[in-house]
Amino acid sequence: MNKFDDQATKALLERNLITGNQYEEITSYRNLNIFSLNAELKLFLYLSVLLFTSGIGVLIYNNIDSIGHIAILSLLLIVIVVSFYFCFKKSKGFQKQETTFEHPVLEYLVLAANILTCVFIGYLQFQYEAFGTHYGLATLIPTVVSFFCAYYFDNKSVLTIAITGLAAYIGLSVTPQDLLHNVSFYYDRSLSYSAVMLGVLLILWTIYSSRIQLKTHFKIIYLTFALHIISIAAISNLINNYYGIWVVFAFILTASTFYFYKVSYETKAISLYVFMIVYAYIGLNIFLFRLCDTLDFSSIWELFILILPVYFIGSIVLFIKLIKTFNKEIAA
Prior knowledge:
It contains 14 helices and no strands. The chain is mainly α and about 325 residues long.
């Protein structure tokens, strides 16, 4: 038993929150040094699903000429049907509250079945153009299937696939790296507005879901996607030279920062709080840079250079202080 746990247990005993016998039992149990492998096993299960689905993709790519399209699609369909059969058979059915399978392996079987469904539909469209020129359907249908599986089987991993597919359907790539390197984000205003609207819709859905008590534990996933999408869209457009555009997105980033500051405290989610601060800091620096660009600092540029190290060091200190304050307040 480590020193921190020992002190915490003694504090409970001193405050008469536990009895002497309970203290001895807790101490004896912790001295056994028993630890759980639950997280490690789930990680290996998750990796096994990724390796399995990736392996099928590599198998299709390397043997597409020798195996044949019909054989590949038939094999995929059989694996999907069998996987979903066991999932539906062992599931507790749809419930508004959080539910789990009796065996955790089935959660990853749902994930594997869902990924293979996306592969099957995408391959069907690519090879046979099953949906004709309506290429969006090849994205929309797997997205609908993913949302259904996420809510029916209560699977957060599948929900992330569903939201990603929804973003892809309107032309977005929702990873920060892809968004920042997406040139159309800088020149296509409609794509930026679509990103902001998608983020707002995700926020509105979390509010509605909370009111009707529908899978409220999904809230953090929706809010995380919304935060990244809105913030990166706003930051990407803050460097736009057109005055009206960057001012609009400055207000959008400010509103987003204010909202996620409040909701991070409500949900006690430090991940939202940290990313909110990071995006706000980046946006503030871009705003200050644009402000300095419009002013004449030729006479005091040496003083300006001297202030910069102090500014960045102060920013780091303030960031650490904000995180510590947040942890104390949510723990109170």
